[in-house]
Amino acid sequence: METINIIDSTLKEKLDALHVGIIDESHRHRGHKAAGGGGHYQVVVVSPRFEDVNLIDRVRMVYGALDGQINGQPKLIHALQIKTFTPAQWENEGRPQSR
Question: For 47-84, what is each residue's pLDDT tens digit?
Fold first, then answer.
């Protein structure tokens, strides 16, 4: 299974995510020896489980959900940029506007 699909299904399953947006930025880091085979990703996660949870704990929740992909073998994720939203936040400020 492709890493993006693994990230998507894992976050939807473990965090009850209503929306997961993933951008693979691995191509920008070719030859980055410290990556150890893992890719570089940006993720946007919208989950009702983020209600009344501060930003740092939301990020910890995402890292916890993806621990197997970050620390497992094979290492699928080397770097992860995370944005989190509750459904209300996503509706009011996070969702890209239609043009």
Answer: 999 999 999 999 999 999 999 999 998 889 989 999 99
The residue extents of the domains of the chain are 3-94
Count other Cβ atoms within 10 Å, centred on residue 3. 17
CA distance 40 to 42: 7
pTM metric for this prediction: 0.86
The domain covering 3-94 belongs, at the CATH homologous superfamily level, to: BolA-like (3.30.300.90)
